[in-house]
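README: folding subset

This subset contains proteins for which both the sequence and a predicted structure token string are available. Records are stored as plain text. Below is the entry for Aspartyl-phosphate phosphatase Spo0E family protein (61 residues), shown exactly as it appears on disk.
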Amino acid sequence: MLIEPDELISKIEYLRNELINTGLQKGLTSTEAITISQELDQYIVECQRCFPEVRHCVNTL
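--- output ---
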């Protein structure tokens, strides 16, 4: 995945908000919430692997 740090962080923020909203509406164990959570995990790992200098930013979003 080739993506700029700002884009990656924006995607992570978006997915976190989606996960929160989905969790509140459908529950955190819903299929949709789990799918969003797994996608979010992939982006967080990618961010931490490719941009270790922004690791602290991802942890505090």
